[in-house]
Design a protein that fits this description.
The protein is 30% helix and 25% strand. It is α+β, with helices and mostly antiparallel strands. It has a 6-stranded antiparallel beta sheet, covered by helices on one side.
Amino acid sequence: MRHLDVIDGSADEHEDPPPDVVCFPRRAFEAREAASAFLARLRPAPSPEVAHSFLLVVSELVTNAIRYAGGTAVLRLTADRHTLSVAVEDSSPLRPLERTPDLTGRTGGFGWPMVQHLARSVYVYPQPYGGKVVQAVLAR
């Protein structure tokens, strides 16, 4: 994938953490591809339920950054023996909004509550130059 950069060295079959991944997805599917490749290198591999939750969180956070923050996003994926972390940096200083999900499906509102439900913790950090980082940490 042309937007995938491995930041660190590789880990052997029994060692964690794997290399951190940083990429610049223009679309959610590019972020999911990077996250799938990241998960495939984890040893031990996360359960299918954890992997599915991780991919949902990646997709939602990147989609929100692209849709609501002008389309520029930096995706960082990290892991240790106990957690998986997704951090998405975008150019908007605005925090994600809590809103009532639209049950008709027209205006959404399901993604942010889902991220908060699936993650062990969620943080929003303002950047000194503007913009923010939204980080979700999931139990491994």
